[in-house]
Amino acid sequence: MARLPEPGRSRAVLIGTGDYQDPALEPLPAVANNLTDLAGVLTAQQGAGLPGGHCEVLRDPPAQAAVGDHIVAAAGAAEDVLLVYYSGHGLMSWDGNNELFLALRDTKTKQLRTSALRYADLRQDILDSSAKTKVLILDCCFAGRTLDHTMSEPADTLLSEVDIAGTYVLAATENRALAPPGWRNTLFTGELLRLLWEGVAAEPGVLLTLDVLFREVRAAMSRHNWPEPRSNNRNSAAHLALAYNASHELRKAIIALKARLDELAAEETLTEQTYALASDKIAEPNLPPHSAAAPILRERLAVAEQYAPQGRLPSAAALADMSAAVDDALSKTRDAREVAIGSIDRRDRLRGRLKGYQAMAVRLRIAEEAEVGQRYVLARDLLWTQPCDLGAATRAVNAFQRAVTDRREKLR
């Protein structure tokens, strides 16, 4: 059954070398982006969801010893999934043993055994891990630029060099530049990342398993007439997923629902702030009861989604019910906020009315008369005292208004 890694029990080590000391090895600037972007997917909630500390990035490491230490540490800590990724130049020794070496920053093409990461050592470190599932992704040529003349050997023969029993191996077995100039990612990793972020619309599963990813990457590479990747799979690692299928209709519905829950949470926070403001400014504002629904609905979605890492999503009907609940909660919180805003607006309208009739009283030269003046002071004090007693203030403004209009009629 398809599943995502268990985040707390899984480890990833991403190794990439784009800058080399040896002039025989051309720079690969896209490798740095490969590391950044792949780490982003593996640690994203849409992706594998690994904690940041469980996804280690080794960019342009200088020597094989340091790389080996990091791999051994990750291999020892991983209980569920161990994923190792390498991007850079892959070099074959072609010395009778025909061993594969992974180039590092200080690698010398004429001294591979002392300066490059020997694949056989990496293989053993992975084999020694007690992780339930092991994944190796190699985005490299199996020969450097200076060794292109040896690449007539079949790709499957070369792939046998990276076979690890019980481990899923994805390899870009190409014999030319890894990425066109100016491209953000190498060809192979770029296609892998595109699928991880965009998903596969035609795939019925809610998770993007390694088999699905390999199938789709290979198809995309073939469509573009790019070098065809290879894979070896000896166990259930084929069912391991690295991300949710973002193009799956139910997954898109969940993402949309989460966005609407964020909107609801923001609206409810605004309502709570408006309630606090109204309670501060208005005595007994008579606000309807209001409680935040977003946390409850989030928990409800989390319960419904708890089996998503195993490829099981809530039904369309369950999501529709939750969407309707969000609609109802949005309507209620907006209506409640309007009531709170209305109480403050009512006070402000009374203030405006009081000022208008006070201006009239000044023009009529009656503002200083005892009755008019006393009524104005009473209304003013009520309106500018917090919290404002709207009932008493309304009666006081009405009384002041009558006093002014009555005196105006008598003066005519």
From TrEMBL:
Pfam families: Peptidase_C14 (PF00656). Gene3D superfamilies: 3.40.50.1460. Residues 10-224 form the Peptidase C14 caspase domain. InterPro entries: Caspase-like_dom_sf, Pept_C14_caspase. Coiled coil: none annotated. It comes from the Bacteria. This is Peptidase C14 caspase domain-containing protein.
